[in-house]
Amino acid sequence: MRKVLGFLAGLICGALVGLVVGLLLAPYAGPELRERIRARVEDMIEKGREAAALRRAELEAQLEAFKQGKPLVLQE
Length: 76
What we know:
Blueprint: H1 2-25, H2 30-67
């Protein structure tokens, strides 16, 4: 238990040091950096939504084929 607590304490300290160093050495000013992060997160969310919609359409097509008694073709 003591080793786990020591590891967690080191992990938290390392994360905090990394955060501070990252903020101090960031190539962009605070507001610009936040805007870039926000834009990237929004882009990743949009890509995730697109992938989910595509997968949902594939699954709905497979379900409809299954209901009609057609053999299922599973993709790897």
